Amino acid sequence: MLRAMDLTLSPSEEEFRDEVRTWLQENHPGPEPEAGLDEIMVFRREWQLKLHEAGWAGISWPKEYGGRGATMIEQAIFAAEATRQEAPAPANVLGLAMGGPVVIAHGTDEQKARYLEPILTGEEIWCQGFSEPESGSDLASLKTRAVKDGDEWVVTGQKVWTTFAQYAKWCMLVARTDPDAPKHQGLTYFLMDMEQEGVQTRPLVQITGEGEFNEVFFEEARVPDENVVGGVGNGWAVAITTLMNERAGLAFGAISQIQNSLGRLGKLVRETPANGGTAADDSYFRQRIAQLHIEVETMRLNAYRGLTKTMQSGIPGPEGSLGKWQWADINQDLTELALEIEGAYSLLARGSEHAVAGGAWQYGFLRSRANSIEGGTTDILKNIIAERVLGLPRLR
Amino acid sequence: MYFDLTDEQQAIRSTAHDFLASRFKSERLREIAASEDGFDESGWKEMAELGWAGLALPEEWGGQGLGIVDLAVLFEEMGYVCAPSPLLSNTIAGLALAFAGSEEQKERWLRPLAAGELRGAPALFDAGAPAEPNKFALAAEGDGDGVVLNGEKTLVMDAASADFFLVATADGHRHVVEKAAEGVTVTSEQSIDLTRRVSSVRLDGVRVAPENTLPGSTQDYWPVFQRACVAIAAESTGVAQRALDMSVAYAKDRQQFGRPIGAYQAVSHRCAQMLLETENSRSAVYGAAWAADSEPESLPLAASTAKAYSSDAGWRVPDAAIQVHGGIGFTWEHDLHFFLKRGRANAASFGDAKWHRERVADAVLAGDSVPAAS
Q1: Active site includes A246?
Q2: Which CATH number fits domain A126-233: 1.10.10.10, 2.60.120.10, 3.30.70.270, 2.40.110.10?
Q3: How far apart are CA B319 and CA B159, in angstroms?
Q4: pLDDT (tens digit, 9 = 90+) per residue, B55-98?
Q5: Would you tell me which residues 76-115 of chain B have a C-beta closer than 8 angstroms to some C-beta of chain A?
Q6: Hey, which end of chain B has fewer CB within 10 Å, N or C?
Q7: What is the Cβ-side half-sphere exposure of residue A348, based on CA atoms within 13 angstroms?
Q8: A91: closest CA among A39, A159, A31, A30?
């Protein structure tokens, strides 16, 4: 390798960044409406269509499937820039990040022709039916059954933490098709039509008071044979691809998001009166803020190292787990610190006249409690690192 | 964007790794640690032959002219074996001469230093005064022909094996003072780190001829200080990596309750935390090393980021390693304590974590600027 270390963007990468930056500046629809989730989803659908028309929706997807075929560094640049400008999320975030890539990797030609375009346009929203009430981190123990009936499967069981199930047309469903096989081998990956009588969704209210997540109940719901992805009994391997995609896509957007939050935290600490000056003069707060900046910087540099490695080897390694873990720690620490800076005012939430910054940090504090749980708990990530990076023995 | 070493840098790493592994086996490390001056003359000669004394010093003055990334690679490996060597102090003295010395001074002092024939060491902190980077109390008293120095410098690394010191004075200047000069008395201090000795250097009416005062002033030494921070942060990263490797090997091997202890999450999660801190430290170090070579305007913040992070990781990871090892890790017989002590000594040198975090706070809380886009 003759290339020397270079932490700047190459001229062509810079050109790409400028293109992204300009397009976003010219097309940014403004902040999301302060309304219920239904209105927000309408807004996000419009935004996604705009993204798609300009070729940004399926940025990582190959060109032949309607994507942009961007390199990993370009994907990173796009995610970082979109988050920096606080562009809204597209409506079909799970379809774009997981559903499409799975169909592209494991789907039949018919499936590709049927599903990919409506994912890109946002016409059909996707959700993910993996976790169950008794199968969280131990996903492979899931119990939702799919029983063969002619050229269909009959599905009975329950899923949980199903984001946007109430808007979804398709569910990426992992169900047990062979109860006698070892737990990782008896699973099959289906695309389940959510618009049928055997499927009921019920929103789960989170500690923030919102309802992003749902419980989904399947009572003899029907899936045709042609909606199996990757073959009967192969569900675990197919599901793992989607989880890998989830992690690889998130890192750079996540770093940008934390950098935005740090900018706001800096504003908060400089604007909070304390001891005749501001909280920004307080050594304790200065030390804590500096430490957060230092950790975000190590996270950003780790992600660059990981990206270089992935570009060399072609596959993201288990080291990606470090970034997700660190992101959760930093986000939680950051929002905790914001409440400390606010002092007694930190108990005033959204809707209070005297809430600081409109109660944004109270919401952030509560929402970030999920960061070390969603998308792989920190505890499980530590197991993955211990076993797959350090080679320590398994307890199981 | 490309964040990895070149083939040449990989070659420096593997040469250094192999040489240092064979040169500083545990028994030899202990011999040197127990010796009177803590100096390994034959090891120094071999390092000089490998070109390490002048690795990141200008080719014009006999150095290898390599960058700070290459220097970081070398010091990471030095830390990995807790190398007892004056290479760090010598490198910093060399950088100071390169940044702030005159042509004549470079010819006289830098050239032999880069060749490993003369060893230099910075003598910065004044005994009894707060040890703050680049703030010194010693007066440079003029007497018409050069200056006279009266005072005591302390925390001087590797003074026992140095041939000359670069003595810092309150006016922002540094002066070359030979150890053999009249009025210089070196007294060993008892450092917690037996593999890197520190001494006090008394200066009683030491005369410095005008040609031995470096023309550079305070602002010329900040770039030297920042590069020193990167080198010592790299060393602490190597220290952390070694403590992690020892712990993982031990956790796989040591059986309790019928299983290797590494199968228990109380132990394996501790090891995962050690990996996180080691990798973060490494990323911060190479980010700063790259800045030193390619984007000097971002070096001050990057160096403080690296030194603050590695100051903590450099001793916390060996500390966690002792817990993983249990009782055996607390014994003198086990090597871990050398790494804990080096990490702890490094944490306190060249600005501790708190000092560097304050620099970071200064930079990030200065204005209304939103963090730059990547």
Answers
A1: yes
A2: 2.40.110.10
A3: 28
A4: 999 999 999 999 999 999 999 999 999 999 999 999 999 999 99
A5: none
A6: N
A7: 12
A8: A39
